[in-house]
Design goal:
Shape: globular
Protein name: Formyl transferase N-terminal domain-containing protein
Radius of gyration: 15 Å
Strand order of the largest sheet: 3-4-5
GO molecular function: formyltetrahydrofolate deformylase activity
Distance between the termini: 25 Å
Keywords: Hydrolase, One-carbon metabolism
Number of strands: 5
Organism: Hemiselmis tepida
Number of domains: 2
Length: 123
C-alpha cells in the first residue's frame, strides 16, 4: 500500500504507521512517516486500543489497515472503527484462520496460498 500510494497508484495519503512490533521500525523508517509503537498483550489490550483510537483521532485517519497485526480487536474496537478498518490476513479465509496459516496450509497439502483483505467486524 505504501509503495502504491507513493507511486500515485492509490489516491490516498498515508498519515502514519502504528505497529505492535518495534523491530519493524527500521524497515519503514525510509518512508518518512510518523511511527507509533503500541505494544499489546492480553493484559494491555484495552490500553493499547485506547492508544490506537487516540492516534487515529490525532492523525485524522479515515481508514485503518491492519497488516501483520496478529491480534484480534475487541468488540468495542470493531464498533468504533466500523467500516473504517481493513484487515489483511495472510491466507485465504475462511480456510486458514488464526495463527500460522502457512503451516496449516502445508499440513493440509495445499499448493497455493494467498491473502484475504476484509473489513474488520465483531463477527
Amino acid at each position: 500500500l505504501l509503495y502504491a500510494a507513493r507511486r500515485g497508484e492509490l489516491p490516498i495519503d498515508v498519515v502514519g504507521i502504528v505497529s505492535n512490533n518495534e523491530t519493524l521500525k527500521d524497515d519503514f523508517s525510509h518512508w518518512g512517516l510518523p511511527w507509533f509503537h503500541v505494544p499489546v498483550t492480553k493484559e494491555t489490550k484495552p490500553d493499547a486500543e485506547a492508544r490506537l483510537f487516540s492516534i487515529v483521532e490525532d492523525t485524522q485517519a479515515d481508514l485503518v489497515v491492519l497488516a501483520r497485526y496478529m491480534q484480534v480487536l475487541s468488540d468495542e474496537a470493531c464498533r468504533r472503527l466500523e467500516k473504517r478498518c481493513i484487515n489483511i490476513h495472510h491466507s485465504f479465509l475462511p480456510g486458514f484462520k488464526g495463527a500460522r496459516p502457512y503451516h496449516q496450509a502445508h499440513a493440509r497439502g495445499v499448493k497455493m496460498i494467498g491473502a484475504t483483505a476484509h473489513y474488520v467486524t465483531a463477527n
